[in-house]
Design a protein that fits this description.
By secondary structure, the protein is an alpha+beta fold. It has one domain: Hotdog Thioesterase (Thiol Ester Dehydrase, Chain A), CATH 3.10.129. Helix content is 18%, strand content 37%. The chain has 3 helices and 7 strands. The protein has a 7-stranded mixed β-sheet with strand order 1-2-3-5-6-7-4. The radius of gyration is 15 Å and the shape is globular. The two termini are 29 Å apart.
């Protein structure tokens, strides 16, 4: 299984106990969901890409991956879809930390701007909730490189969905 080596210098995963959602936002902090996100081993796409959740709290989730040759396209830089994937996941998971058990979300619109290429090393996507309405959820994510330079900024509109819906 690919992933971040334990000795990669990353801080230990953390959950923000008792954290409140960003001011003015709708949503009830779901500390158990944040904890479950942190504790779950990488699986599916996260295992394939080598991504992992390093922080999770009320309205904020951080995903990281160590970009290497397997993440680059023919031009020698990390493929934009890889960067988009970690940004989209960080945004969706940040929303999930403010959703009740039994509810999740799915992206219905996503926008991303790329500011600089990434070639290798740690990429960190910081997802945060912007607003949550009854039928629409809004979030943003910044993706940083190892030098803490902004690589990309994304925004998404999601819709809440009951767990399991749309999978039949």
């Amino acid at each position: 299984m690919r992933g971040l080596p334990a000795t990669a210098g990353a801080p230990a995963p953390q959950a923000w106990e008792g954290a409140q959602p960003p001011e003015g936002r709708v949503g009830i902090p779901n500390a158990e969901r944040a904890r479950a996100l942190l504790e779950a081993p990488p699986a599916g796409w996260m295992e394939t890409l080598g991504a992992r959740i390093t922080e999770a709290g009320s309205g904020r989730v951080v995903l990281e991956l160590i970009a290497g040759p397997e993440h680059r396209h023919g031009g020698g830089v990390v493929q934009g879809g890889v960067i988009t994937q970690i940004a989209d996941a960080a945004m969706g998971m940040s929303l999930a930390t403010l959703q009740p058990d039994g509810m999740w979300n799915t992206t219905i619109e996503l926008k991303i701007n790329f500011f600089r290429p990434a070639i290798q090393g740690r990429l960190r996507a910081v997802g945060r909730v912007i607003d949550m309405r009854q039928t629409l959820l809004f979030s943003e994510a910044d993706v940083f490189d190892e030098q803490d330079r902004l690589v990309a900024r994304a925004s998404s509109t999601c819709m809440p969905v009951p767990e399991g819906q749309g999978r039949e």
